[in-house]
Amino acid sequence: MLHRQVESGCKDERLVLVVPRKMRGNVLDLSHNNLCSGHMGVTRCVECLQRQYYWPGMSSEVQLWIAECELCTRRKPPVSTQRAPMQSIPVAKPMELWAMDIMGPLPVTARGNQYVLVMWVEAVPMANQCADTVARALVDQVITRHGIPDRILTDQGRNFESDLMKKVMQLLGVKKLRTSPYHPQTDGQGERFNRTLKGILTSYVNDDHNDWDIHLQLALFAYRTSIHRSSGVSPFKAVYGREAVSPLTLIDGENMSTRGLSGNYCDELEQTLRKVHKHVANNISLAQKRQKEDYDKATKVESTQLKPGDRVWLNSKAIPKGKSRKFHQEWTGPYEVLCQLGRVNYHIKPEGGKAKTKVVHQNRLKRLESRSNSELPKINELNEPVITHHEEEQLTVPQETPTTVRGLRRSTRVRRQPDRYQDFTLEDVEIEDALF
Known about the structure:
Elements (H helix, E strand, L loop, with lengths): L2 E5 L5 E6 L2 H13 L8 H9 L2 E2 L3 H11 L1 H6 L21 E3 L1 E3 L11 E5 L2 E5 L4 H16 L4 E4 L8 H10 L2 E4 L9 H17 L11 H9 L10 H6 L24 H33 L13 E5 L15 E11 L3 E6 L7 E4 L3 E3 L63 H5 L1
Parallel strand pairs: 2-3, 4-8, 8-9
Antiparallel strand pairs: 1-2, 5-6, 6-7, 10-11, 10-14, 11-12, 12-13
Helix pairs in contact: 2-3, 7-8
């Protein structure tokens, strides 16, 4: 057996075993997959191995081994840089595309409200989130005041995907759009509005938190009349072409929003709306470009490209009934990629199962790492190394000087001539004895 002299952190020297290639798989299995090893990460696993063993390229092979470990892959959270590039929604006309969501459950108020139907600068309190309640709130409280939009974007909740809601959309001639499951970033604008609305209501509610529905409309007014950084104007002005009359505009006793208007109000309003809409569209386009550049800087595009036939893991946040969130393994699978839908969605199916196929966002997928290109054997292919028995023969050792001996690592100290042994035969010796 060949040993290598190494220097520890305490400046003392010791001998470690140089592991031949055929035995590295066994050593890696014991150092990472064994019950006493704990499936530690690359750094700790390498440090543990370096106490007793050495072989060239140890760190790289450990990293490759852990990357293929199924248990480690399934429990690790997603890497933020392995994601699809940002896809911006094209700028539309006012009230052309609506984003709709349900916020709640919230504390039940004295009027029995517990949920909020949230739309862009609109919110309707509701007692429940059933499909008929949502449909009635949409028609009675929003469409009757703003008209029918071209498209409505929602998540895949049962209330939005019900037959009743599909029938309502069909009667109104509205195109229904859906976000991909477990990917709220598709409706990022609506999610951001929910957070802002919650913050405003938090400043208004009483100590019992049961009067939020009374303050809901005033909170919406505050939001509609504030200037947005992306558009450069308030939502109120983007829709009506003028700023809203508020207590702030009446401080000097005069309506500031009507100053300078002549008798031909209709023509002036039309021109103002055109200018405002053009201004908003330009500002939103610039903001989307800036946000996409910032987002894509930390995105590894080359690591996220998938093609049909690739084996992948699927990230799932759902906790099965009776299971603990503390020990939940986020990655399920493996799955096989069937095809790509659009730019960032994929059609996948489970391997070897009869479960239904899924359409998921690219950010929820992770390629299944394989060690097929490595010379290391796979874990399930490990067998005891083949010990070759051969006749004893005289080993010829070349004469070398200490300055010409090639060491196993670079060093400034004087190298000694390594110990050389002739081949030997292991008889009736278990592999554990050979390792330890």
